[in-house]
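> @MW can you paste both from yesterday?
MW: sure, first one:
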Amino acid sequence: MTVTERHALEALRAPALNNATDGHVGGDYESDGYGEMVLDGTEALDVSHAGGEFQELTRGLLGDFWNSTSEGARGKRPDYRTFRDRSTKQTAAFSVQMGAMAEAYMVWSFKQGGTGGKGFFDSDERRTREEQKRSCDGVDTKLLTVLVLDVFCAEKTSVTVAPTDCYLTSALVRHGLIPCSPITPKAAVTVHALHLYHTARQRCPHLSIQGYVKSLCDMHGIPFHNHRSRQFSIALDVYLQVLAFVSNLVHHALQRDQPDWRLKHSCPACTYKLQDEPAMRFAMLFAQDGNDSLKRVATRILDGDIDHVAASPPTSEHTFHHEQYLTREFVDKFASERQTGHSIDGDGNLCAERWKNMKDNATQKMWNVFDESGVFIAVCRHGFCLLIADMVQSGEQSKYALAVTSKLLDTFGSDLGGGYDIGCRFKTTLATSKLGERSRSLNYTSLVNAFHGHAHNRLCQLDNLTTYVEGLGLEDLEGCERAFSKSNALASSTRYASIFHRRQAIACYFEHNDEMEVYANLTKFLLNNYKQALDTLSNGRATLNRLMDELGVSDPATFKLWLDEERVYLKSLVREPPEETLQMEYWQRLVNLAASRQDLETIHSTWTVVTAQNVAPTWSDSSATRKRETTRRHAQENYEKDLKVVQELEGRLGITRRWVPEDEEWQAAARLVANRKYQRALDNVERLVVSRIFELSKMNQSGTGYKLRKHIGKALQTRSAAIRAALTQYNTAAKALGRRTLEFDEVVEYAFLSDFDLLRDTRQDVSTRPWASPSARLAINTYFKLSRAEEEVIRLNVEIRRVVTYLVDEDRYLRACEALYQDGNPTLAYQISRYRTIRSRFTPLHLRSLEKISRLSGFSGTLAPGVSVSRGPGDSAAVPQRVCMDAVLSSPPVAADDGEDDADEDADEDHATTLEERCEALQNILSVTMDP
């Protein structure tokens, strides 16, 4: 129906009203007709500056519905509580119900196991209200209406509350729903929707709650509202706490709830020791390092000041505990005024200038906008995360590494080897700390990672580089870098999170990564390392024999002697002899004295001839005379100052006759000064080349933005020009000494900084040393790589047998525990079976990899299971014992004073729902009115 037709119909339907003179009747009609014309778009609604016309129009359209909802909204009392207060009370209310909720979850999960994992709206849970009422007749059972959010559907439905349900929350969990409030829930999220998000986020840490909820709303065909994200976040926290509670129950039933049990059994290949194993220098290898990607912005309180959480942590921090996390209190035990950073005064470490985390001024400060400035972790050589510590309002200080090392020493005991990118400096820090004596008694070894080690000083490499450390095998100790390359994706979702949610996200990520990534690839790691070791042995032996023939070396032990000679040689270059330093300073002062004497003599020998033609006025002549006198006086003072310094140095050196350029001593000191200029020019070239190497690696790093890549590209162009200029200076200094010059193409291809270290000595020709030739250096590295490959084969044979034994013992132990609880507690037995399937799903993969290992031509180990040395409670080789579970499942009643707070929370949810219904009703009315 068109607008014209509608107006014509109105004229035919009520002609009397058009001609009526009664103002009241005419006014009513004009009002109604105008409203219809506004709604159908014929007329525009006149809105005054004061506004409110559309609100009154809507009030008239909605009538009683508007009045009822508006009065309810206006009658809501003001809420003066803070967000922290409400969160604290809400958490406390959920906590006292957690036992009942966990028990209900186990019942629901047990039923789901028999239904094939159907969704909430696909199962028998979804029934009409009439059917549920009929099922409740004669039984003390109630109905609870809640808004259920599932993956593909969201609607209000009724669920039964049985007499056996302790709480409404446990009743919802028994139906597979997680409530959003603890007392009178109005909305709930299905376990399947929460499980989908939790699993997807571990695989894609960028996925946020808001993005996921918006996706659900898109699939449901409804608009997104912010309170839905808040509800989902609450339900997710409750869900994860329920899972943690159930996990604790399972570990208690398995007798695996002792302190540090998870840490002691984190990696089967590292910790599942067997009888009659060959002795190895390192009982366990691990890597530790810090990462500043997972920062968290500090929250702000009402007055705008930074909330220093380290001084007074909020209550929410104490509600989250995880075995992997070290507390701030434990870490702060290792902080002291003298050890704020890694540097110790007077240690003379040559690598300090190459590493930011070796400098106190870089590690002691951090922007105050961040509370947690990153994480410090430790991983075993296979990639399992051992420990996590938050770096709080500081850089990578030594207390984090000391805390991690202390915890690992307490747990695993002696013969540990820990890789750290600044392991050379940490070795000194550890020795001078309160852990020094204990670490020495337990034979702890501080190591340097392979990749980072090549950026250390050559002398440091000879002591700490993985290639030269006996017993290390082919391990590179770069596990932290591989872990950080994946965990950096968490940064965007944790930067503005609370302390609780940040720790929760980090702990859940590493736990999931250990179970689904690291454990799944454990035997693949062993297979690849075995192949690498065998390839190194097969190819390296032929190469080493050829090099030994070229060098005329018959005994491979010669390479160890050459390495020791290089170490002694480089130690002699660490510092210049004090006497040479004084001689160079004396020579430089003599040069300065000669220059100042020449300046003074030049001034004394300068005369000004005045004639009648160039005579100047008196005032101008006096000014020039004063300037010349000042210049003469300054030259005299400089000469006397230089003379005094020369006399002082002559007294310290015992020189009775002043040197002159013809003296042999003068020429020797001049050569020393030239050597110093040469070395400084070499340092400049090295610095520029190192910067170029790091920038090239950053160009190819995943996650580097376009603008940063363009900036680095321009910097590389500038860097190349700077390298050419520095090379010119270096070659000039090298030619003065008769040293070998360098070309640009040669320098930019340097792969190791040790190539620069061998250019430094100018007191003797290093090329005459037998170990300095390229062939000799290749032979040395080949020999030590062969030695490490042989050690790797021995370690892999041990670890392979450990994994085989673990697979057999673990499956047998868990199946025995499952059978032990099957009759008396079937729901707990089902959770034990689920716990078993977490890792048993990867057993076929492990068996295939082990079979491939056994078929390798050089395999020297065995796949026969061994006998574990650990047979204590909870160990895989132990005999399972039934544990009483009654005390663990008991839940105290909910405190009465939490009801009002939860009612207010529910009122907020009801108000938000009411607004949605009001908007939907208005939309329906408008659509009906506009219908032609």
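MW: second:
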Amino acid sequence: MSSPSESSSLLHLEVGEFTQSAYSASLDSNDDPESISRKVVERNLLRKLDFRTAYLVLIYILNQMDRNNAAAARLRGLEEDLGMKGTQFNTLISSLYIGYVFMQTPSNFILTRIAKPSVYLSSCMSLWGLLTTLIGISTNYYQALSSRFLVGFLEATFYPGAVYLLSRWYKREELGYRTAFFTAGIGISNAFGSLLASGILATLEGFHDYAAWRWLFFIEGYLTVLVGIGGMFILPDYPSGPARWLTPAEHALARKRMEENSEGHDATEPTSSGDISVVLSLMTDWRAWIVGTALCCCNASLSFNMFFPTLAATMGYSPTISLLLCTPPWIISTITAVTVARHSDATRERFGHMVFALLMLITGYVLAMSTMNFTVRYISLFFMAQAQVSNVILLTWISNTFARSSSKRAVAIGFMNCIGTSGNTLAPYIWPSSWGPTYTKSYLICIMLAISCISLCWVFRRHLKQLNKAAGEEERELNLSKGYRYLL
């Protein structure tokens, strides 16, 4: 491992050898040599890093498929074969998120204490893939319920862990786009997961004496195990540790970028030392609770995605056609998520972009409530799907705001995502089958939750704006240069 001084010299020596040849045409000749050197190294660093972290998209696609396959299996006899009654299917959906609540914060604690998050996250993925296959051999409701709870327990390590891992490599103004690109797996998963599910459910009924819905769990679980094994060799670890895929200059710059990313932040608020101190400081920080509650409302308002095949089926088509109809809205949603998040990064603004997404959600719900007409209800599904980016922007905002130290950031992401996941735990009960096929009450509840999320985030934004104003006034009084500012 290089010392800081050695790393600095490596940065200049190594870059100087190839700056004039490979990259001179694309750089401004008026820039000073040190600036040119950094631009070249940073561009190569981000290119390599983007290639490695892109694997998170594949993992997240399978994460979402494993999470949502029960909704597709429901269309092919899951409830009947396992003898479910009343709200037992809703409880089956909810059980996964109960596991989430228990594990998210402890898992991110673990991530701050280990050197190889690539092995940790990938191992958990392979294990939840194995448990997914076990759901396929369940013979009763309680076996499926216990397996799904354990799947959630292990899946809880991934999303907050992946967001934290990204925050250890990317700067604040880069994080929103990368997080959105990573979570674009939601749209891709829902789009192509529906295609895969329709193919499996339509062709494998009775194959080797297993129902088609069981094959859905077998195949998706097996794919998850394989991708998890691959992640051990592809995902990056932390910039503070070894990184053989980077040159010494790139590695030195990666560490320097993270130091620059937190410059001035420690002056804003004192940092805590020790794990217990970090947890206690969060539990007594009203901002953590208000943002966590906003995330809870946001997640619950987006709960339509747990029942997307069910909502598509209300238009009166066969299970196969209903699953195929789910694909186009999610393809458009993926494009929307990346575009909105990239613009959010470019403008360094979070609140307005999140509100824009939630207003599309509310529009979709109002359209769905207004009629049972096929065209209007299908258009409403497009509006609903576009709102998925609101969760991405809010979680990125959390990572930007609570970024004083890596340990606090890890716990903050886990802690507030834990509060947020409680919304997912209760959300399945917003969609009882007795309220179908119109689901008017469900849509009204979700509209109120979206409005609550917007209101809480407005309060949070106003508070951060006041902190930025106070920091600016202090700098002017003391004749200091502009320091750290919270993103709004």
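> thanks! Confidence is low (pLDDT under 50) at residues 1-27, 265-274.
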